[in-house]
Each structure stands twice: as structure tokens, then as C-alpha cells.
Amino acid sequence: MSKRNFLEQEAPANYVAGLGRGATGFTTRSDIGPAREGPSEEAIKAALARRAEQQGLAPPTAYGADKKKDEDDENDPRFQDPENEVGLFAGGAYDEDDDEADRIYQTVDEKMEKRRKTQRELREKQEREEYEAKNPKIQQQFADLKRALSTVTDDEWANLPEVGDLTGRNRRARQAMRQKFYPTPDSVLAGAAGSSEFETSVQDDGAAAAASNQDQVDGTMTNFVNIGKAKTKVLEARLDRTVNATHTSSDSASGATNIDPKGYLTSLSRSTTQSAEQIGDIKRVRELLESVIRTNPKHGPGWIAAARLEEVAGKMVPARSVIQRGCEHCPKNEDVWLEAMRLNETDNAKIIAANAVKHNPKSIRLWVEAMKLESDPRAKKKVIRKALDIIPQSVVLWKEAVKLEPDPNDAKILLARAVELIPLSVELWLALARLETSENAQAVLNKARKAVPTSHEIWLAAARLQEQQGNAAKINVMKRAVQALARVEAMPSREDWIKEAEKCEDEGAPETCHAIIRETLGWGLEEDDGRRQIWMDDAESCIARGKYETARAIYAYALRIFYNKKNIWRSAAELEKNHGTKEALWSLLEKAVEACPQSEVLWMMLAKEKWQAGEVDAARIVLGNAFKQNPNNEDIWLAAVKLEAENQQHENARTLLTTARQEAGTDRVWIKSVAFERQQGNTDAALELVNEGLQMYPKADKLWMMKGQIYENENKLPPAREAYNAGTKACPKSVPLWLLLARLEEKAGVLVRARSVLDRARLAVPKSPELWCESVRIERRAGNAAQAKTLMAKALQECPHSGLLWAESIWYLEARTHRRPRLVEAIEKVGNDAVLYVAVARNFWAERKLPKALSWFEKAILVDPDYGDTWAWYWKFLQQHGSEEKREDVLSKLTVTEPRHGEVWQRVAKDPRARFKNSEEILKAVAKELDDQ
Question: In this structure, what is the dihedral angle of CA atoms 814, 816, 822, 827, given to the nearest 10 degrees?
Fold first, then answer.
């Protein structure tokens, strides 16, 4: 609602126009009614009386108060109201206007007070926060430590050491120990450095001999170097012992005085008591445990702990006595009986076992241990069968009884009886099925399925049985299994089924593995759940775990649903290529090109596999079919050209290129045509093609580069310069063109022009690490080290995250002693970069730290396996310090990876003279060129 104009608003209460200028109300004939009058005398009296009552004062004199009393009050300064108006404003009567004014002023005051309160509270809050930040409370200082306490385990709480004696009871003894303490002599520490407890020596033989001679000459001389190294050795040995003790007894208490309320009995091992011996606390532990068993004699763990303490202390008789007393006090505790059986000899242990099973006839562990005490198989059977008479529902006892039977027929009889008594034990049913023949096993599994309808393990056993009989293709057991398990709501999840399929693959049941995936992979997934990506992730996870058959089954199922998805076909083909057979790969790719005839990648994969297998004619047929499906596809044209060129069919290749330029005349086809003629040594034809191609594609920077390189190879520098200059004008963003032009000028000996070219290049392509690096290299090759460092500083400011610049700076512009800290700084700024990792590896190589160099070379390859220069440096390293096996492994991986990039790699690989070289030959050529740098 908009605010009304001031003149259109209603007048306030008691408003009289002109009253402030001395005017009074009057009435004229034109007035409708009489003018408003002021408040009446009665109203004024009532208002003054209310105000006096609110202030706790007597009414004014004019309205009934004692005049004398008012005069006394006015004269008495104690009762003077500081708010009463005196002097100029005295004598005024309080009316409705005054009351309204007071309310208005009060409203304004409250509003201002509220505004000031908000600002004041904000200022006070800021001041309080600053004060608390500068002067934190004790509670705040230890807040992070309190939060860390939530991660402390029960074992760590139990391992906290006791505080010791705080009463002063042993104060004199401690003072005496302090007085008797002497620091370890330096000779002892120096002798410890060469003892057999540590590594050979702390210094070289020559230095040791010199130190020994010096000590003999002057006995007062102290070799502080030896002492410091000895102390370091002692500290390392102590730390090693601590770490080993922590690993070997991580589940036991750190001291025998610490008691775990849940499991200190079972964790009180030899290592625990030995730790107690080391700190001289066995007596104290014994007193503590005696207190425990005396306070609560029915507490079995206390008796076991006391017996183990005596055992490790070497007192077997007291240990057996203590545990015997424990058996008497805790006859129902099977742990105490088991400990007594362990501590006694075999004959006594049998007697103890007999008493134990008398007191605990339902204890399976006692019966099993009693059986193990017997050495005669017949006695073992007798014990276990007696146990089965008492506990016929124990699966553990039945399994032990079956293990004791050497005859499979007797074992089958026992298992038949076991499944009658325990029909819900899947484990016993499966054991019985494994012992039966194929026909009887099928009947057993049918009974097991009826007894335990919720068990998927029985269905899997049935499927594997059908696979063994050769009926897996005829009888789809898994389909019935899914229906039956879904009917009783016992269907496992997709992830569980994949794990079962992997288990079947490990156990040699591939058909069952495929059946599981085929029937369960889509369980619980809808069409809009992103099934394709989920199945692709499942297959990749299986490949990562080495379960290739399971991944193959997942791809097969996904291809049945998504038959026309070429990425699934490619992933399946990669699986067969890396982990399958050649025939399986061919069959898969043939199905793939039928499903996706417009995918040139699949066609070329099939043609390449045929060609690499030596079937050139079959590869030609594949490419011919690909032409029919993709008539104007440049990739297929170029693949056909490559096939003919690699098989020395140059005329066929030239004819194909001519046809390709007419039907699919892209710039790439023209580039390949020029490259083919250059490889054949036909310079004139190549130059003619490149000029013709530039008329059609003036923005193709590679054509300009090839034109300049043709002239440069013929040592025609002015035409080459002209070609490069024209190329930079047509393609100003092409960094390789600028680099070729700058190197041409440097080759011609005109460094000023080379610098000018690179300056113009950096303006056209800002923040290019390659251009900055080339500028630095030109100055470095010219011997201007100071200018190179200046340019490198600017380059690193422009491109701080370039591994190429950091590697160039550290390797060529830094002193050898400064390389390592600069490498650390570079890695922190750049992160994962293959060029930088190679620089780190080369630095370790120069420092003769070969294992570290090897590790960093491998890291560089993992970061970017497509960077060929990394492979070349690694090969160069292995030639000097690697084994033959390692070099063969690198060559095999190189053949699979086929790197295509790299500063030196590309220059060597794209040389027309290297047209028939494979990856191994290019690797060796690049390594040789690195040697010449």
C-alpha cells in the first residue's frame, strides 16, 4: 500500500490549526459546527492525577492536595524530581498534547535504542571473538585432542600404562635411584656403534682408523661424530624393536599390568609377559591377578591369566596348580578346562578332558579337543561318536566324524545320517552330494533344495553338476533357481551373484559362470537406471580383478540388450585382444561390424587384426566391405592406403590416394598424399601436391609445414622461409609452424631474426610453454646463460604449471647441488607430468641412485604412456643398468602402447626415411639421438 501525501493525511489528535503562531479557535457562520475546544478542566485533573499516581506522588495542590505539604516538598531537595520542569518551563499544565508528545518521543527513543543495540551487540561480539582467539580457554585448546579420543580402540585404552605411585611412599627409593644414576660413558656409545647388533660401522674404514689413532695419541680427544652416529644407531634399533613388538603383539596388552576387561585372558601371550619381565613388573602382576581370583573365584579368565603368567615365568608346576584350582572353582567354564588340558601332559590332559566333558557334556569345543588328544583313530572315532550321542545336532562334530572316515562309503553313511538329523545344514548336504555319483548327487541336491528352499548354494551346486555332465546347454538350472529364490524372497543381490560367478570361474566352471551372469545381471534394474553404464562398470571391475571370463559374460549379456552400441563392442574386442584368443577376437569383430556397419573403427580393427596375422587378402576384403558401408570415409581410405604401402604395393596405394582425393578430399587425405610421395622420394610430385592442397585448404598448417620442410631438406632456405612465413600468416595459432620458422633462422645463423620470430609467436599464442622453452634454448645454445635465465624466469611467471619449462630450467640452468630442492618445488606446483618425472629420474641417475631412478622412470610412463620420449629415456637407462628380462618387458609393452607423441619421438617417427620402422626401431633411434644431445 503506497504512502499518502502529507496534505491528504488525517490531522493528529488535538491538532488546532495555527495554534503555534498564537491563533485560537473561533466559530464563523461558514462552519458547520463549533470550533474544537481544548480539554476540559475535569480531563486535565484526571490526567494530572493519573500521572501523579504513576510516579508515586501526591496529587497537585489545585486538585485536593495539601498546599503546605507541597511547599515543603518543593523546598526539600531530597524530593525534587529532576525531570520536573522548572524555571522557564515551570507552571505548565500536562494535557493530552503533552501525553502524545511523550509517546512520540518514547517511540523515537526506543527505535534509536534498538538500532544502537544491534550495532553495540555486533561490536561486542567481534571484540569477544578477537579476545577468545587471542586468549583461548583450556577447553578449546584441547578440543582437537578430545575429538581424537573417539578413534581410540578398546585395546588402546587397555594398553594405557598405570600412573604409578603418587603418594610419596617410595620417595626415598626413587631419590636413591637418582643419586646412583650415572650417564652412559662415551666409550660405551662409541663401542655400540660397531657391535653386531647394528649395521657394520658408522663411518668409513679410513676415518675409523684415523679416529682410533687420534684417540691413542691424545686420550682426552672425543670423537663426537662417532658418538652421534652411535646414538642414532641405538635410537634406530630401539625404534625397530618397538615397531616389531607392535606388529607381533598388536592384539595383546602393552604391559602385564594392564587388564582388558573383555579379552585379556586370550591375549595374555608370551610376548605380553615378556614385556612385563622387561619392565620388572611380574611380581606386581602376580599380586594383581591373585587379588582378582581371590575377590571373584568364579571368574575363569582370572585363573587363566594367573596360570599363563606362571607358565611364561618358567614355573610350570605352579601354573598347573593354579589352573587346577580354577577348574575346581569354575567347572562350567570351558576356557578354563581347555587351558588346563593345554598345560598338562597328554595322559593328564585326557583325564582332565574326561572331567571336563562330565561337567560340560554339551560343550562342542571340549569334545573336539578331547578327540584331538587321542592318537589312535579308533579312539578318536569313539570319542566323537560318544559326543554325537550327546549332541546329535552339532554340524562341527559331524564334520569331524566324516574327516575321520578313510572310506568314502562310510563317510556317505555318516553324512546321510547327518542330513537326517540336521536337514537345514547346507554344508552337510553339499558334502554328501560331492561324495555321491552323478545320478545320486542330483537326487541328493533335489532333497536338499526341498529341505532348504532359500539356499542359492544348492542351486549353484546343481548347475555345476549339470555342467560336469555336459547338460549345461540343455538344462537351464539358473533360470529355475532365480524363479524359485524370488518366490521365497531369498534372491541375493546382483553384486553377490557376480561374486559367485567369479568363484565359479576360479573353480573351473565357465559355463555356470556365464549362466549366472545371463540370468541375474539385470536383476532389479529398470530401463531408466543407466543399465549400460552399470554393466560396463561391472565388466571393468571384473577385468581389474583378473576375472576375464566373468567380464566376457557381462559383455555378452550387455550386447544382447544393446546390440547396436559400438562402445560395448569395442570394449569386448579390447578384452579379447588383451586376454583372449585370435579366433575369438575375429569372431567378435565380425559380429561387431554386422551390428554396427557405420563404425569405421570396428572395420579398421578387424582389418588390422587380419593384416597383422599375415592374411593380407582377407584384410583387403574387410576394407572392401567397409568401403561399401562407408563410401566416403577418409579413415577407411587411409587404412587401405597404409595396407597397400606396408605391403610394398606402391602403385595401388598411389591409385587409392588419387581416388580418395577425388571422392573424400579432406585436408587429411591431401596431407597423407604428400607424405606418401615424400616417403617415395618424389620431391617434385610432393611439392606439386602440397601447392595444390594449399589452394584448397589454406588453413591447413601441416601442409605449410610440409612445404617448408621439402625446401629445407633440399637446403633451399629462402623458399622454406617464405613458406613458413606464409604459413604463420595463414595459421597464426600454429605453434609448430612458429618453431620451424625460428629454427630455420637459427640454422641460417640469424639469431636476431629467430628472436624476433619467437617474440611475434608469443604475442600470437600467449602462454605457450613450447615457445618460451624454444626462446630459452636459443639463448642457451648461443651461450647467453644470463639472458636464458632471465627468459626462463619470465616463462615460469607466464606458465607456472608447465613441466617442460621446469625440467628445462632445473636440468640446464641450475647448479647440480640445487636440482633436488627445485625438483621438489616443481612437483608441488606442477603435479603429475611425464617430462618432469623424467627430469627427476635423470637426476637420481646422475647421483647413482639407480633404484629410485628406475622407480621414477616407471612413474613417468604410467602418467603418460603415449609420450615416446619417456620410453626412450627409460630404454637408455636400461641399456646401462637394466637386465635383459627388463628390456624385453619394456619392448613388449611398447608394442602394445605404440606411443605417438614426444618432442624427439615425433621428429624421428615422421621422418620420411623412417617409413618402414616399427616402434622398437624408432625407440632405439630416439635413444641414440638423446645420446647426441
Answer: 110
Residue 216 lies in a domain: no
Instruction: Using the 3D structure, point to which of 512, 530, 562 is the last residue of a domain.
Output: 562
Nearest to 819 by CA among 794, 802, 832, 836: 836
Of 289, 290, 295, nearest in space to 265 by CA: 289
Q: What amino acid occupies position 426?
A: V
> Is 247 exposed, middle or buried (CB count within 10 Å of its CB: 0-12, 13-18, 19+)?
exposed
Residue 352, classified by CB atoms within 10 Å of its CB into exposed (0-12), middle (13-18) or buried (19+), is buried
Backbone angles phi, psi at 61, to 5 degrees: -65, -40
**Residue showing cell 605417438:** 900
The residue among 863, 857, 786 whose CA lies nearest residue 830 is: 863
CA distances from 819 to 183, 798, 831, 844, 851 (A): 43, 21, 17, 10, 19
Give the orientation angle of helix 96-134 with respect to helix 41-54, to 10 degrees: 30
What are the cell numbers at 299?
571368574
Domain residues for the domain of 336 are: 252-359
- Are residues 332 and 342 in contact, defined by beta-carbon separation less than 8 angstroms? no
Contacts of residues 472-481 at CB distance under 8 Å and 24 or more positions apart, as own/partner, are 472/511, 472/512, 472/515, 473/511, 476/515, 476/519, 477/515, 478/512, 478/515, 478/516, 478/518, 478/519, 478/520, 479/519, 481/456, 481/519
pTM, full prediction: 0.58
- In this structure, is residue 533 part of a structural domain? yes
Angle between helical axes of 717-730 and 735-747 (0-180°, round to 10): 160
Please name the residue ranges forming H helices in 596-734. 600-612, 616-629, 634-646, 650-663, 667-680, 683-696, 701-713, 717-730
Centroid of chain to Cα 460:
36
The closest of 373, 375, 437, 427 to 402, measured between CA atoms, is 427
In whole angstroms, give the CA distance from residue 756 to residue 766.
Answer: 15
Contact 249, 269 (CB under 8 A): yes
Please give the Cα distance from 677 to 685 (Å, whole number).
7
pLDDT tens, position by position, 125-177: 888 888 888 887 777 777 767 777 777 777 777 777 665 555 555 666 666 55
Whole-angstrom Cα distance, residue 825 to residue 716?
45
Provide the CATH number for the domain around residue 266.
Answer: 1.25.40.10
**DSSP code of 913?**
G
Q: Which among 562, 582, 604 is the end of a domain? A: 562
Rg of the Cα atoms in the chain? 48
Count up the domains in the chain and report the number: 4
Give me the chain's average pLDDT, please: 79
Residue 265: inside a domain: yes
- 842 pLDDT more than 70: yes
The neighbouring-strand residues paired with 867 are 901
The mean pLDDT of 770-795, rounded to a whole number, is 92
The answer to whether residue 667 is domain-embedded is no
Largest pairwise CA distance in the chain:
142
398: which residues sit within 8 A by CB, 6+ positions away? 388, 414, 415, 418, 422, 428
Q: Can you tell me which residue has the cell 618445488?
A: 825
Write out the H or E segment, with its range, that includes residue 561.
helix 548-561
Distance (Å, rounded) from C-alpha 747 to C-alpha 349?
Answer: 95
- Helix, strand, or coil here: 362? coil
- How many residues are present in the chain? 933
Residue pair 673/689 in contact (Cβ under 8 Å)? The answer is yes
Does position 345 have pLDDT exceeding 70, yes or no?
yes
Beta-carbon count within 10 A of 745 CB: 22
| Separation of alpha carbons 668 and 398, rounded Å | 76
Q: Between these two residues, 403 and 35, which has the higher pLDDT value?
A: 403
Q: What is the DSSP string of 857-894?
A: HHHHHHH-TTBHHHHHHHHHHHHHH--HHHHHHHHHHH
